[in-house]
Amino acid sequence: MAYRLGVDVGGTFTDILLIDEESGATYRAKTSSTPEDQSVGVLRGIERACETAGITLGDIDEVFHGTTVATNAILEGKGARVGLVTTEGFRQVLQIARSFVPGGLAGWIIWPKPEPLAALEDTVEVRGRIAADGSVVTELDEDDVRAKLRHLSQQGIEALSISLINAYANPDHERRVGEIAAEELPDIPVSLSSSVLPELREYERTITTVVNAAVQPHVARYVANLDSKLTTAGIHGKLCILRSDGGLVSAGVAAAHPVNMLMSGPAGGVTGATWAAEQAGFDDFLTFDMGGTSTDVALVQGLKPRIGRETTVGDLKVRATSVDVRTVGAGGGSIAHVPQLTQALRVGPQSAGAAPGPASYAAGGTEPTVTDANVVLGYLPTQLAGGEITLDRDAAHAAVKSIADATGLESVEAAAAGIIDIVNENMLGALRLVSVQQGFDPRDFALVAFGGAGPLHANALGKLTGAWPVIIPPSPGVLNAYGDATTVMRDEAVRTLVRRFSELDDDSLKEILTELADDAKATLTSEGVPEDQQRMVYSADLRYHGQGFEIPVTIDIDAFDGSGGGIESLRKAFDAEHNQLFSFVLDAEHELVTVRATANGPRPDVTSIELEKGDEDPAASLRTTHPIWVDGGEVEANVYDRAQLKAGNVVRGPAIVTEMDSTTLILPGHSATVHPGGSLLIRPLDSNTEH
Fold this sequence. Notes:
This protein is 31% helix and 27% strand. By secondary structure, it is α+β, with helices and mostly antiparallel strands. Among the domains are: 79-210; 283-468, Nucleotidyltransferase, domain 5 (2-Layer Sandwich), CATH 3.30.420; 490-600, 2-Layer Sandwich (Dna Ligase, domain 1). The strands form nine sheets. Strands 13, 14, 15, 18, 23, 24, 31, 34 and 35 form a nine-stranded mixed beta sheet that branches. Its EC number is 3.5.2.9.
């Protein structure tokens, strides 16, 4: 028997999904995260999943892991002390940065500019210069390099980043500095910009390399620790880490280039949502992943997530390919509060996390959270995570009462409803960022809701966005782990060209793409993926000549078939994307800046779910009735056991559907149809929308 395991570590829960590759059977576990040592929660969850499946840990062949370790290191300011080596005259590249101030007019008055991850006193200049065309202007002064590296050693740096001017065009000087660093600073990890991001733009290349260096020691320790503990526990299968773009890399590659893992956790959810939507028959959809700490949203069109070239974490924006995910601090653990200055109710971004957690967890938390509000309104059962957490309704009521008292609302239920309304509006704002702001009407998309808290709020978000149906996948609370377990090995090769279209032809561009494809394939081949099973995807960053930014566009490699239509197909694709984003195109020459080739391994063959067929009546799965608070009053809701639902059953609201890892709320005036693939499809009762 062959088993693969998906692991997703969140701020509140750690999710495990074990898949039997032969039968397609899945076994899940959900356990509290252990922030002090995440591997503890991971191993505890794996043991529970294996116990449920009746196998030993030694039966696991592969472990696929989505992690927020790199993200948290940045957000919590726990990155390593980084030294930066740059070209003479460019010491303040990080301080100059880009001219950007968040917020509205006069935002600069109150915006504290974040400190660079490599301090000015830890930044040195070396003599030597490469031109933009890759030629050597000034030879590298190796004696100067050694002196500057010894200075950094005395500064007590923990990681080294090397970013020399125009290194993307010629990496020789950077590589030599790296070789000297290995001699002068033998125990310090080194990040080269020509390896991390061999692309145009000095600031973006430098900040991305510095971020890579800042999290590298932290990630390397975590990966090594997890790998060691898995081996000690008897798991000898291969450990792979999810990249920000939704692909997989080996643990060793992930530790060397952790900047590509900053969106590792959310990317797994988008992959899992794509699988669920495909099973339900929908190609275009929004994803809505609400966990305990935050909510991640994305847009998928034609079963392909939109991929961005920038990743934003806190105040940092780096150049790293990632699924275009937007995150807001809105989760089940988000804390509700009433600032004295405004006396207006606010929810988040502060979170109760896993410890102490919401007040209803009875683990020491006293502040009112979104979970507590759901408990007060009657939306949540008395137990979560398969019985690991028992909810204390009295504690939840007492916590939310503080909000009622502070706002003068007439009841605790009204305060709880206010908390839910505000957090829903916060999440609507994120969904609009990936849809309306990019030229898409959310009413043209379905909405896939998952995460431990997502199905509770999904119906309300469907009403706010007009996105129907709302799809609740099977095991929504562990869908991120499913995405981790069913994604593919991936690597990419990149080259910056900066050529106007008039300077290009199909043959020369295809030759470059072929060279990049060979480089990307080599990595996967070294990881044991046969070349004949690898699938290539090509893309380019394009702009109008004179424009100050680029837009990523997929390259149709089939158009480069010798007929001369390759460059023209790129022109049309860019104009269409530009029009989608900005509602206009220019009569200007096009320019290619960067091209990349991405190699993808084979998709795992996992058997799909197929439920037993039933009629519309879900009575066999009805467990009880329960009062809930909706639209300002109390109503009776039917409570159903999702495990007993059959294909074709129609659950009419108000209703609650419970399962081990999540709870789904169906509002009055709506119904959920059970799809043969296991998903619940929620629609308004007066709608026959089938898009």
